[in-house]
Amino acid sequence: MLVDINLLPKKEPKNYRFLILSALCVLLIALAASFYYFQINSLKTKMETVEKQILIVKKISDKQSTNLNKNEAANSLNLLKSGIEWAEANRVITIPVMKKLTSLLPERGFIQSFKYEESEIITLKVQFDTTSEVAYYLDHLNKEKWIKESTLIKLNTDSENKAEG
Q1: What is the torsional sign of CA 28, 31, 37, 42?
Q2: CB neighbours (10 Å) of residue 149?
Q3: Contact 152, 162 (CB under 8 A)
Q4: Distance from C-alpha of 105 to C-alpha of 133, rounded to nearest angstrom
Q5: pLDDT tens digits, residue range 55-110?
Q6: Edge-to-edge order in the sheet of strand 163-164
Q7: Torsions phi, psi of 110, nearest 5?
Q8: Which residue of 16, 61, 134, 139 pairs with 165 in a disulfide if CB–CB is 3.0 to 4.6 A?
């Protein structure tokens, strides 16, 4: 009869669980890292294409604004030319009018402002020393044949007895 005597301790079977779990963790980490790597790369390429599109849009916008400025300048030039042509065609000779209006002033009367409107209305701001000079000037204006109508709109007097008409 044969007896098998083994004095060596029995080897426990190797535990592959820890090895498998650690391999799975490493695999999951590698998968997650590769996923994020590809996501970041795709976002970078999208950002680059968007930046290129922005540059293209800016170039187009600059060209259009340059063209628009050229068109506006041309339009402004045309408006200015037509305004000059209109002004030359519709000249108002104000020097004889001013001479006549100043000749009607009394000795101490002064024209402070002169405004000629398109509807052939002249607005004067005149300064006098007394209110009787205002009446004198208004009467002489009304007697002129080339003046259709003259009215006193406002009369101001100050403490020194000067009047503006």
Answers
A1: negative
A2: 7
A3: no
A4: 8
A5: 999 999 999 998 888 888 888 888 888 888 887 777 767 778 888 888 888 888 88
A6: 110-116, 122-128, 163-164, 156-157
A7: -135, 135
A8: 134
Maximum mean pLDDT: which of 49-58, 66-75, 128-137, 156-165: 49-58
* Tokens, residue 101: 């209006």
The residue assigned the tokens 């020097």 is: 95
Q: What are phi and psi of 96, to 5 degrees?
A: -60, -35
Q: In the chain, which residue ranges form alpha helices assigned H by DSSP?
A: 17-89, 95-103, 131-143
- Beta-carbon contacts of 93 under 8 Å, excluding residues fewer than 6 positions away, are none
How many Å apart are CA 115 and CA 101, to the nearest integer? Answer: 13
